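Subject: Glutathione S-transferase

B.,
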Amino acid sequence: MELYLNATSPYARLVRIVLLEQGLSEAVTLKWCDPWADDPALLKANPAGRIPVLITEEGTTLSESMLIAVYLDSAYPEKPMLPLSHLAEVLHVAGLGQNLMEAAFTTVIARKHNGNEVDNSVLGARRLRAIQRLLNQLNSELGEAPTASTLCLGEIAAAVALDYLAFRLPEVAWQETYRPLASWHQGVITRSSFQATAFTTS
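Prediction pasted inline below.
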């Protein structure tokens, strides 16, 4: 398998963590690229020019992090991240994490191209309100850090989104406001899969 990614995408990091948690890191070749540079190999794999993109062993290209995670969970079920016994709950938390990731990522991109004043626009203000609501929801729902041998997809999505907030939007300072959530997050990011995939600008 091949995975197109970069070091700052929360979506690509989610997939990397899934691969590590499932013990599949040796089965994947990482293809580092700049999605903003119209990399020809990336565009061939995904005409949208978005990462991550996974090319399966059969040569099928898969895009969008959650869809890739669902595929990996189905194709390599030895360490399930979508346990059927509480699937709805896992997908619920995954949705919260994905929405937080999207609100934060879109804020970062909007600021990059239009300056921080974009936060004062209707859409910018709406994104910031969504971030706070999602943080409040996650703070009320997530308790002790998971101790299972494999994380579920919801836990991965939520923790990656929180890490991305701390990385790209530190002024949100969510750890100070949402102490229970910060404690939960700290317990998750000590795992080797998170340590090995930490966000970096280098």
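Residues 84-195 form a domain with the Glutathione S-transferase Yfyf (Class Pi); Chain A, domain 2 fold (CATH 1.20.1050.10).

T.
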